[in-house]
Write a structure and sequence with these properties.
The protein is an alpha+beta fold. The chain has helices spanning 49-55, 70-82, and strands at residues 6-11, 17-22, 28-31, 40-43. It has 2 domains: 1-60, no CATH class; 61-91, no CATH class.
């Protein structure tokens, strides 16, 4: 069985970021404008499906910008980034 190409960006509770990648035909590039002499970096490590399922179990609910809950979640995230309460009422 062929593993589908996938990339998981895992952000833990402390805000640390990790990248997991699996599948054939996948190339993952990270572009970092802070490193002008090494700006484009190809992420080569590959993970097994078992390693990915430790972070994202197969039965995980997957949301997207196309689902019904997206506006509420986006509002909550934007409010958190701005340091505001997500349900501010303007007068």
């Amino acid at each position: 069985m062929t593993t589908p190409a996938m990339v998981i960006v895992h952000i833990d509770a402390q805000g640390s970021v990790d990248y997991l990648a699996a599948g054939s035909g996948l190339r993952l590039f990270i572009v970092d404008e802070r490193a002008p002499h090494d700006r484009v970096y190809e992420w080569l490590p590959r993970n097994s499906i078992a390693q990915i399922e430790e972070v994202m179990p197969a039965d995980s609910e997957v949301g997207s910008s196309a689902d019904a809950r997206h506006p509420a979640i986006a509002n909550r995230l934007h409010a958190e980034w701005a340091g505001e309460h997500p349900f501010t009422v303007e007068s």
